[in-house]
Design brief:
The protein has 101 residues and is mostly helical. The protein has two domains: 57 residues, no CATH class; 44 residues, no CATH class. It has four helices and no strands. Helix 2 runs parallel beside helix 4. It starts with 29 loop residues before the first helix and ends with a helix.
């Protein structure tokens, strides 16, 4: 995102890589390379932090969905959307599936 699509305010709207260039030559300075490394590390770190927070925040929901997936190996799109709107529906769905067995 940083080097290919220019998605960074500090580096600007420049492309720093060429998909077809496999040489060791870099068309930018070491200072720019360090800035690119810093930006990429920050993006990855921020994404990791966000992912961990989402998992912790939604742990019970994920456990309930895992329980449902253990009972039945799939969840339809409609079921998934319904459960995301109302997580209590997951427990109901698990009970419903167990009654059918």
């Amino acid at each position: 995102m940083v080097t290919k699509y220019g998605m960074d305010d500090d580096l600007g709207q420049l492309v720093y890589v060429d998909d077809n260039d496999y040489s060791a030559y870099k068309p930018f300075s070491e200072k720019t390379a360090e800035l690119i490394d810093t930006k990429v590390k920050k993006l990855v770190s921020d994404a990791y932090t966000k992912a961990v927070k989402l998992i912790k925040t939604n742990k019970k929901l994920m456990e309930s969905m895992a329980e449902l997936l253990l009972e039945r190996e799939y969840i339809s799109r409609d079921e998934f959307e319904l459960m995301m709107k109302d997580p209590k529906k997951i427990k109901e769905k698990v009970k419903e599936i167990r009654k059918k067995k």
